[in-house]
Automatic annotation (TrEMBL):
<feature type="domain" description="LpxI N-terminal">
    <location>
        <begin position="15"/>
        <end position="151"/>
    </location>
</feature>
<dbReference type="InterPro" id="IPR053174">
    <property type="entry name" value="LpxI"/>
</dbReference>
<feature type="domain" description="LpxI C-terminal">
    <location>
        <begin position="156"/>
        <end position="284"/>
    </location>
</feature>
<dbReference type="Pfam" id="PF06230">
    <property type="entry name" value="LpxI_C"/>
</dbReference>
<dbReference type="Pfam" id="PF17930">
    <property type="entry name" value="LpxI_N"/>
</dbReference>
<dbReference type="InterPro" id="IPR041255">
    <property type="entry name" value="LpxI_N"/>
</dbReference>
<dbReference type="InterPro" id="IPR043167">
    <property type="entry name" value="LpxI_C_sf"/>
</dbReference>
<protein>
    <recommendedName>
        <fullName>UDP-2,3-diacylglucosamine pyrophosphatase LpxI</fullName>
    </recommendedName>
</protein>
<dbReference type="InterPro" id="IPR010415">
    <property type="entry name" value="LpxI_C"/>
</dbReference>
Length: 299
């Protein structure tokens, strides 16, 4: 079952497992949890997690991407009953040559994969299936944001520069596209200019979609819109932007980053905003209702 709302307070008070992928989000979660007196037992996904995370948690393990059984054993060995997911997992590895040989899955992963034969491989389908596998061993998943809700962007324009009138219309246009892509569980981001779609994120992720937009729109000045799915499960795959997003936009020629308020993680907020100001990029966080106000198709 999807969990589309955050709990009022963390459902764990003393110990929690952290299943960590790439990026800065695992660091922010671990630091916030320990500040609140919560012991963090981390299982990092090898070739994704930053090994420096070991200095931010109480216990640290690493397992390969195909080691579902190994991850479960690590948590069970530490008597973990509640866990969270944080960080990016690069699904593109599934489509590399001979993926089974690259990942060397354990027997638990092989049985899990065969049992779900015939299912699609959308993000929600995969991640909910993985959560159910952990549940078989008495491990429940909560949202990492229960510990650090302050990472969610509030409403407002965060930068000195604001979107122009035409860019505001592009935000509304892109918002509709991005919401539909989210409903289909294809991706979270679209890149638009002059009410035309330049790039739509799929398996490659937001950063590569932005880079592709820069190749297709040499004139630059495009808008990146990133929103949550209409039924976003807050336990995983919550839209996330940060310094890396702005670096990519600056290199590709992007001008505006529009994100969904209260449902998008803004990592390293001050550094991200300062970098955007340096490059003249506008960052605006708004609700769907606010985006629709600038849509000429909405009366």
């Amino acid at each position: 079952m999807l969990e589309t709302k955050l709990a009022d307070k963390p459902r764990f008070s003393d110990r929690v497992g952290l299943l960590a992928g790439a990026g800065r989000f695992p660091f922010h979660f671990a630091d916030a949890a320990r500040e609140q007196g919560i012991e963090v037992v981390c299982v990092g996904v090898r070739d994704h997690v930053d090994p420096a995370l070991r200095d931010h948690v109480d216990r640290y393990y690493e397992v390969g991407l195909g080691k579902l059984g190994g991850a479960i054993r690590c948590f069970k060995g530490e008597a973990i009953t509640w866990a969270v997911m944080a960080g990016k997992i690069h699904k593109v590895m599934m489509f590399s040559p001979m993926p089974l040989l690259r990942m060397l899955p354990d027997w638990r992963t092989i049985r899990w994969w065969l049992a779900r034969k015939g299912s699609d491989n959308k993000d929600d389908t995969l991640l909910l299936s993985i959560i159910r596998e952990f549940q078989k061993d008495g491990i429940e998943f909560a949202s990492a944001l229960e510990v650090c809700p302050e990472l969610l962007a509030d409403v407002g324009t965060f930068t000195r520069r604001q979107p122009t009138e035409s860019q505001a219309r592009d935000i509304a246009f892109g918002w509709t596209l991005a919401r539909e892509m989210g409903r289909l569980d294809v991706g979270q981001s679209v890149v638009v200019k002059n009410a035309a779609a330049i790039a739509i994120e799929a398996i490659e992720g937001t950063d590569r979609a932005i880079a592709r937009a820069g190749q297709l729109c040499r004139a630059g000045g495009f808008t990146v819109v990133k929103v949550a799915k209409p039924l976003q499960d807050m336990r995983f795959d919550v839209p996330t932007v940060g310094v890396q997003t702005i670096v990519g936009m600056a290199k590709a020629g992007g001008s505006v980053l529009a994100i969904e308020a209260h449902r998008t993680i803004l990592i390293d907020r001050e550094e991200t905003i300062q970098l955007a100001n340096r490059h003249g990029i506008a960052i605006v966080s708004l609700t769907g209702e606010e985006a629709a106000k600038t849509d000429p198709m909405v009366a």
